Amino acid sequence: MIGSNNVIPPSECIRNSRGRATPSAIPSDLGEIVGTSAQRPWLEATVVSRAKNKGKGLNFVALPGVAKKPGFSNLLLLDYFFKVNSEHYFLTVMFSTRRTSKKILRRAKEIVFVSLVKDSPSCCCIRKLSYVNVYMKWKKNPSYDSIDTIYRSLELKPLISLKNCIAQAPSGCIPISDISKRGLELDVPIKVAKFMRRYPSVFEEFVGPQYNLPWFRLTPKAIEIDVEEKAIYEDYKLDLQLRLKKLILMTREKRLPLRIIQGVQWYLGLPDGFLKNPGLNLDGSFRFVEMEDGERALAIDCGEKMMSTLQKNAVSKGLSNGGWMEPIPFPLFPSRGLRLKRKISAWLDEFQKLPYVSPYEEVSHLNPDSDIAEKRVVGVLHELLCLFVENAAPRKKLLCLKKYLSLPQKFHKAFERHPHMFYLSLKAHTCTAILKEAYEDEAAIERHPLFTVRKKYIELMKDSDRILKQRRFNNHFSYGKIADSDSALNSESIDEDGIVVEKS
Fold first, then answer.
1. Is residue 2 part of a domain?
2. Domain count across the chain
3. H-type alpha helices, 399-496
4. Alpha-carbon torsion 486, 490, 492, 498, what sign?
5. Which residues contact 123 (CB under 8 A, 6 or more apart)?
6. 83, 118, 153: which is the final residue of a domain?
7. Same domain, 170 and 244
């Protein structure tokens, strides 16, 4: 449509200098300009490069054959959503300009490119100046800093790995020599024997039959919880498959390397040997493929349309009909004492009204610097944490998913820009991202079947702390009694008849 006479004058598209537009700002003859799919094929734009003078959230792009012409050095990209003849459209308009970013909307010269994509929502919206780079003040929240299932998971993960090593032994007990060299493999932060002695309520130590080596076996309570855990893996196998399937379907190519899956399988609730037995744990929709670099990956052959947790909740509340890019707001849970600046609060209100892009939809048409793309990033992080057992994960653990989930370079900043949705905890020298909705509205997100089992393991860990504390007290008390006895003997003497007398 470049060079076409049917262009839309900027005066009819722009309401004011801040770039706000309403449905009335769209020309009434737009249907004649657009035409039908039979009369004119749809045009799609591809951004090939970005100018350096990008200012205040406004996106400048350069197109081949256009940027070389005089007067077309910078192009302003504007996004519209509108409805024509009961059909939905997404309109991208580019204005040529040489003005600065402050005057760009008032002094745009003419439209040189129009891109139309069908089936967009029936609302009119234009991308405005964004506050996505603003600094958000961090507010400490003790209620989130005291969730044991999150902060003791760093100790729980190696504990369960060691428990599995003992449970898989034919005799139900193993010598320390069998696992003393596997500390790095099992993520044990200290010596294996020292770590196991920290939890006497889980691991019972005894002297082996030969060479007086220390052996370990599970306590009766740990065996009981282990049986319950195995039953959950068997009963909820389809649920675990679905969570893994959703994670893969969120990727751009619908496949994920095995090493990435192994890095997040603890948070998904998958057992240690889940990928080692694909015939037992995976259904026919999964298949192993080889990527371009020779790395093995797990792919999905599934034509089923997935709905995110946010979409399901919106449909159940009557806020959505499950359509494409509907303006679904995120549930917000402000922390006590946390107040946003007025301009940030206003931007957040507008952000909530933007169309929601499902994590399972194609996003190649989105402008990566737009607020809609920001809402898509927040939606991906929201859905990702919904799949995890504790609805939380260390922020650095999510970095490995950036490339495959089509996330921007600094996507982790979204946790800071949306403190009403996420809480960043700095406890235990780890930055942990927590989804507030999971702990403020328990009915909104279905609990992972392993959540209760892990809580029981953590209770055993607390029992171990009490046992060790009691042992230290008993040792101190016994040492005190021995010291008193020694001092009494030093102050007394025995006469020739064997009678104890005090020394003078």
1. no
2. 3
3. 413-417, 437-440, 451-490
4. positive
5. 81, 327, 355
6. 118
7. no
Say what the pTM is.
0.70
pLDDT at residue number 336:
82
Dihedral of the alpha carbons of 394, 400, 406, 410, in degrees to the nearest 10: 60
85 shares a domain with 20: yes
Q: What is the model's pLDDT at position 109?
A: 34
Considering the domain architecture, whether residues 99 and 68 belong to the same structural domain is answered as yes
156 and 269 inside one domain:
no
Long-range contacts of 321-326 (CB under 8 A, 24+ apart): 323/121, 324/119, 324/120, 324/121, 324/358, 324/361, 325/120, 325/121, 325/355, 325/356, 325/357, 325/361, 326/121, 326/355, 326/356
What does the angle CA 459 – CA 387 – CA 320 come to, to the nearest 5 degrees?
130
Give the structural domain span for 92: 10-118
pLDDT in tens, 234-248: 999 999 999 999 999
Give residue-wise pLDDT tens across range 174-198.
999 999 999 999 999 999 999 999 9
Q: Does residue 181 sit in the same domain as residue 311?
A: no
pLDDT in tens, 249-269: 999 999 999 999 999 999 999
Positions of the chain with pLDDT lower than 70, given as ranges: 1-136, 477-504
C-beta of residue 51 within 8 angstroms of C-beta of residue 62: yes
Structure tokens that stand for 431 in this block: 């930055």
CA atoms of 187 and 153, how far apart (whole Å):
12
The closest alpha carbon to 419, from 346, 310, 336, 327, belongs to 336
- Residue 479 covered by a domain: no
For the chain, how big is the Rg over CA atoms in Å? 31
Q: What's residue 245's pLDDT?
A: 94
